[in-house]
Amino acid sequence: MDSLWHDNTRCVVTLTFDIDGPSATLRRNPELADHPSAISMGEFGPRVGTRRILDLLERHEIPTTFFIPGWVAERNQSVVEEVADRGHEIANHGYLHEPPSSLGPGEDEGAILDLGSDILESITGLRPLGYRSPSWELSGDSLRLLHDRGFVYDSSLMGDDIPYFVGDEGKKLVELPVHWSLDDAPYYTYMPVAGRTAPMATPNDVLTAWQWEFDGAYRAGRAFMLTMHPHTTGRFARLEALDRLIQHIKQHDNVEFMRCINLAEQWNQDHPE
Ligand SMILES: [Zn+2]
After folding, report:
1. Domain ranges in the chain?
2. What is the pLDDT of residues 70-82, one digit of tens each?
């Protein structure tokens, strides 16, 4: 089998983080704006978790991508600056975590995209080239809107476990696919006030699930793409699981840790249609 990847790379790994803060909670349950305890769960991400994750990534010399809603970026500018200064890509994740598939009357998907990009660009000086839809819920218009704005990739779909092309003829984007089993939120989220009372998975269970997924991707020569949240994985035991996962991955030869934009651009270059 010809390798999917350039040079000697056998498996590509992207460890991505969505700094959602309390934005997803507020969007889903606007009545929780008056519940400081619920909001504080999300605030832990930009306040504490993000820097812990940045330190871990620095120790392992891993560059990656952070998706940040504009509303969170506005309130945590120094965190956004630090993420960028420490070599990571910053990408668009809406304004107040609005899933494009369920916008309300008067909400304009293109305007929300532009607002998110304007805020991130005003902080970092760079216009984002990547997008991840909040809650991974694109609308039927999303891919066209992204292409028209010069985005290079989207990361919201689940149709493969390697990058693939999406969009209409002549308006293609690279899709960097995700999956709920490769996201920390379904395993760890416990929030009674929002009705989330399923038992939390242990970090050890999550480590096992992700190790097995990486092992399969490595054997098959494919990609391993994780989604995590600083308010979730920034807690010590979960961070320990991530550290051990990285150590496991690093025991394998020819693994390349990439930022999403570098992977998307490489994919475009290596797979001309
Ligand atoms: Zn999110």
Report:
1. 11-270
2. 999 999 999 999 9
Cα-to-centroid distance, 38 and ligand 1 (Å): 16
Task: Evaluate whether 32 touches 18 at the Cβ level (below 8 Å).
Answer: no
Q: What stretch of H or E contains 225?
A: strand 223-228
Instruction: Compute, in angstroms, the gap from residue 253 CA to the centroid of ligand 1.
Output: 32
Average pLDDT over residues 101-123: 97
Residue type at 230 in one-letter notation:
P
Over the chain, what is the mean pLDDT? Answer: 96
pLDDT at 262 over 60: yes
Give the model's pLDDT for residue 228. Answer: 98
Write down the CATH superfamily of domain 11-270: Glycoside hydrolase/deacetylase (3.20.20.370)
Q: How far is the CA of 272 from the centre of ligand 1 (A)?
A: 31
Report how far ligand 1's centroid is from the alpha carbon of 134 (Å).
5
**Ligand 1 centroid vs 119 CA: distance in angstroms?**
17
pLDDT in the model for residue 188 = 97
Is 241 in contact with 207 (CB distance < 8 Å)?
A: yes
Distance 143 CA to ligand 1 centre (A): 18
Ligand 1 centroid–CA 43 distance in Å is 13
Mean pLDDT value across residues 244-265: 98
Q: Which of 196, 200, 195, 163 is nearest to 184 (CA)?
A: 200
Which positions ≥6 away from 200 have C-beta within 8 Å?
Answer: 187, 188, 189, 190
The fraction of the chain above a pLDDT of 70, given in percent, is 99
**Predicted local confidence at residue 153, as pLDDT:** 98
**Residues whose beta carbons lie less than 5 angstroms from ion ligand 1:** 18, 20
Centre of ligand 1 to C-alpha 215, Å, is 26
